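Re: [ENG-882] Designed sequences occasionally contain unexpected residues at chain ends

Forwarding the minimal case from QA. Structure tokens:
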């Protein structure tokens, strides 16, 4: 069974529970030092494209965002990134980190669902 957690990258690391910490945002979080974030992996190929992010923030629907994001995740680089994350999750806990305020209703939740 895979163990995928969702957390905000701004929250302090939980060494006993986080396992491998994976940043799933395309851009580095504002105001956060790399040492503080304790990010182990940053696979940009599995993050929403800049174009998709901009489209969504301009008023795109969540349903359409999900469909477009899942389509992006079918690309060769993204598929390889997903396989890597699945392999990590098979070995132990993986925590998907994002800067969004509600990780449970973000692209990170879509990604976690696809990995699970």
């Amino acid at each position: 069974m895979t163990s995928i957690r969702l957390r905000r990258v701004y929250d302090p690391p939980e060494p006993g529970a986080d396992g491998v910490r994976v940043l799933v945002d395309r851009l580095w979080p504002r105001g956060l030092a790399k040492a503080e974030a304790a990010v182990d992996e940053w696979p940009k190929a599995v993050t929403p494209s800049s174009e998709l992010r901009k489209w969504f923030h301009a008023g795109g629907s969540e349903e359409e965002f999900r469909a477009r994001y899942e389509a992006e995740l079918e690309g060769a680089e993204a598929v390889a990134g997903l396989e890597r994350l699945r392999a990590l999750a098979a070995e132990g806990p993986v925590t998907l980190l994002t800067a969004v305020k509600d990780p449970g209703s973000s692209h990170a939740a879509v990604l976690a669902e696809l990995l699970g």
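QA comment: On inspection the terminal residues look reasonable. DSSP finds six helices and three strands in the chain. Proposing we downgrade this to a documentation issue.
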